[in-house]
Design brief:
It contains ten helices and twelve strands. By secondary structure, the protein is an alpha/beta fold. The strands form four sheets. Strands 10-9-8-11-12 form a five-stranded parallel sheet.
Amino acid sequence: MLTAPRCRCCVSARGDLVLDLGEQPPSECFPALADPAPDLVAPLRLWLCADCGLAQLADRARLPEEPVGLEPAALAAQRAAALDWLLERELVPPGARVAEFGSPHGGSFAELLADRGMVLAGHDSTPALCGLLGRLGLTAIGARRFPLYGGTVCLVAASGPGAEPSAGRAAAELGDVLTRELAAGVLDADALRGLQTAAARTAGELRAFVLAECARGARVYGYGAASRAVALLNLAGLHDGVLLGIADAAPAKQGSRMPGTRIPVISPAELVDRTPDVVLVFVPELLAQARAALPRIELGGGRWVDAAAPELGRPHRTDVVAPRAAACN
């Protein structure tokens, strides 16, 4: 049953639904391949608070923990660049006490922080931090946008007397980030409703491309069993009879299946052994790393394709051999 949304930040009930993807399986749950049970589904809707401007999931659900992924090299490089920026702008001083919280994307700041003279705090600091956030005002003092995953922002905030943006480069970078995001319409419900059309277009293009490849006898696989791929595959209506498998380097995901579509999750080695004609990459940042690690894909006549590219099907090499025969249902 759908419930009336209430903001997770300011508890306001005033807001707008800006995206509705219908009933979707949880992207955090990757059932075992042999598990015969049907996959759970729940509404997947995006709601924009009219009072504080926080865009958030409209519905709450109790979900299982997401299996820990293997961190892409691009994410590790961005983490190091972000920390270098923080130190260069003197937004985080050497010797500072910091807390780190785990992510299902894998990777950690711990070693980099220690190398730069910072001290990791225990997780027992969480209640104190939550209390401070509730009692004290926070002021943004710096921000920088990194390109990974379509755009990631590192935002620095401080609290208490004297917490205000400096007049240097950090303040200018903060202004640039704010200007860019406001221009994109992040607080405008009408602008964000364009996500509905964009999602439908991306899913439709993906489905049309895969079915066309199957019709010519191509064996189509995927790479990167990412949570973002779950809703996309379900919206596109691509199941295990069409997409033959998705390779992922994370051992925790291998031997499972994509929720909703039941597409098997296989290892990169198994992907190579199956000599695919087409490999759809669901995390574009993985493309260069995957091509370097799995050269036999292209040597065997296969090609890599960005699953979210506007011009789907553009090969990353031109000397592609004729596809092997395959059946698609």
